[in-house]
């Protein structure tokens, strides 16, 4: 069955594209164009005139995280604020057993989780590995473990 599918894909896409497709089929990875921190699907984002921000509250599918396929549906509470001094993002991703919190502002990404292993990795990572840069070497953001109070303030604010 797999061999027949492989041959059909080869017929349609040709030899050069097949190398890329084969890499993803065998390597359990996602295409480079999707290798972002998160790739999300089915996220319903709406404008909130009262808070002057974009918000989401509901289920979404986490397609990939750091280039690795996830394919899991989770709940999310998110807010995106555009401002003159810069953009701010707040995201709380959770299910019955696990949660992750992310907050971005002023080139800093704050994060925390109910997963203690995740928190330990963020906390103990070498400082130079917590600085994310683009191809030109410009600093995009620095990752920092945040206190639980940041998450609680966000959840209280968006009730």
Describe this structure in words.
It is a single chain. With 159 residues, the chain is an alpha+beta fold. It contains 3 helices and 9 strands. The protein has helices at residues 2-27, 116-124, 148-157; strands at 38-41, 46-48, 53-65, 68-81, 88-94, 99-105, 108-113, 131-133, 139-145. Strands 1, 2, 3, 4, 5, 6, 7, 8 and 9 form a 9-stranded mixed beta sheet that branches.
Main attributes of the structure:
single chain, 159 residues, alpha+beta, 9-stranded mixed beta sheet, 3 helices, 9 strands, 28% helix
* Quaternary structure classification: single chain
Class inferred from helices and paired strands = alpha+beta
Low-pLDDT sequence parts = none
H/E element string?
A: HEEEEEEEHEEH
The amount of helix comes to 25-40%
Strand content: 35-45%
**Count of alpha and pi helical runs:** 3
List the SSEs and their pairings.
Elements: H1 2-27, E1 38-41, E2 46-48, E3 53-65, E4 68-81, E5 88-94, E6 99-105, E7 108-113, H2 116-124, E8 131-133, E9 139-145, H3 148-157
Parallel strand pairs: 7-9
Antiparallel strand pairs: 1-3, 2-3, 3-4, 4-5, 5-6, 6-7, 8-9
């Amino acid at each position: 069955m797999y061999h027949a599918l492989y041959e059909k894909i080869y017929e349609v896409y040709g030899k050069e594209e097949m190398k890329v497709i084969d890499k993803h089929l065998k390597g359990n990875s996602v295409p480079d164009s999707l290798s972002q921190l998160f790739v999300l699907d089915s996220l319903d984002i709406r404008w909130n005139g009262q808070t002057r921000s974009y918000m989401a509250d509901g289920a979404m599918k986490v397609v990939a995280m750091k280039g690795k396929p996830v394919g899991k549906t989770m709940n999310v509470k998110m807010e995106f604020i555009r401002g003159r001094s810069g953009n701010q993002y707040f995201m709380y991703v959770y299910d019955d057993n696990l949660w992750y919190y992310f907050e971005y502002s002023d080139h800093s990404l704050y994060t925390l989780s109910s997963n203690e292993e995740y928190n330990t990795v963020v906390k103990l990572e070498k400082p130079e590995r917590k600085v994310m840069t683009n191809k030109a070497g410009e600093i995009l953001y620095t990752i920092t473990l945040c206190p639980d109070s940041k998450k609680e303030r966000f959840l209280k604010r968006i009730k």
